[in-house]
Amino acid sequence: MTRRVISFALTATFAATCAFPAHAEWFPYQAESTAPAFAANGTRTAFSYQPLSKAAKPWDVCVSFPHMKDAYWLGVDYGVVEESRRQGVKMHLVEAGGYTNLNKQISQIEDCVARGAQAVIIGAISADGLSSLVKSLAAKKIPVVDVINGINSPELTAKSLVSFYTMGQSAAEYLIKLHPAGSPKVKIGWFPGPAGAGWVEAAHKGFMDTVKGNASIQVLAPKYGDTGKEAQSKLIEDALQANPDLNYIAGTAVTAEAAVGLVRSRNLQDKVKLLSFYMTPGVYDGIQKGRILAAPADSMVIQGRIAVDQAVRALEGRLEEKDRHVSPKIFVVDSSNVKSVKLDDILPPANFKPVFEVK
Q: What residues are paired with 325 via a beta bridge?
């Protein structure tokens, strides 16, 4: 799921000996299993996810992210790193630098496999653009786990992700509770993220399907763009300039984070409210301080942990059908519950820096 508002260094690669606490007590975790696996209209069943206690051997797992420019993917990194350590497997992470770099992501994964990776976890740049690669990896009997973003391929081994349709839907439902049909009309600036990314299209559809028919909520034409701070800031500035009567800025976490400073610099904080359709440390901090209204939490740390466990299970022939398509339970965080949320499940620790290798 972008450049982090709270800056962090990407220049150093941290080895597995970095001293961050491992939280073995993260499980069992409340989740949903989809059957049949990977079916868009599959049946979701609530269950408690229970990972393996430890891998049978130190498997070599390659992890590929679209980028490491924001705190969201830092959270997924934390989950992947800590679960790799807990289970005793090797992990090598590569990042492609942004959602326009599909070919780079493909070549990085191919290099990973050539280097000897025995399983691959992919946070996909494109839902359709990696299907040929997945097919070729499957032909080589290399397990492929789809994490966070979504890949359209029947050859996948497992999925650890939530429905971004539901994330967009949850954000829209929050708005509807505040502005039910028949109440005064509000105008929403909508910033779903980079066009073509599977998670963006799903969130956009979930948001728009949910507000459809509610005459009290007017959503402006979506403003697509890379989830870097500069790109989102430019989109927000343009929207504020063109729509002086704007009531809400809703969209990605980076949109909400960037908008905090922009609306405050224009003294619009009492007029323009902010809403994200997923959680990051910056969004959490904004909710705590009353600067961002709310955001659904998809437990990105847990998604990273589950992806590692699924890869290990697949390598050891212990991947059960119920564990092939897993989604942590989604819940909305706002001022009413922000102080009671278990942070280690949904966000990385404040002092966590990017880790690219576990040996």
A: 159
Sequential DSSP letters for 95-117 = E-SSTT-HHHHHHHHHHHHHHT-
User: In whole angstroms, what is the distance from residue 124 CA to residue 132 CA?
Assistant: 13
Contact 83, 51 (CB under 8 A): yes
pLDDT in tens, 157-206: 999 999 999 999 999 999 999 999 999 999 999 999 999 888 999 999 99
- Structure tokens that stand for 106 in this block: 């493909």
Taking alpha carbons only, the member of 289, 72, 66, 57 closest to residue 167 is 72
Nearest residue to 45 (alpha-carbon basis) of 53, 37, 35, 55: 35
Query: 177: exposed, middle or buried (C-beta count within 10 Å: 0-12, 13-18, 19+)?
Result: exposed
> In sequence order, what are the residues at sequence separation of 6 or more whose Cβ sits closer than 8 angstroms to the Cβ of residue 312?
52, 55, 59, 61, 87, 89, 119, 318
Residues 129 and 102: beta-carbon distance below 8 Å: yes
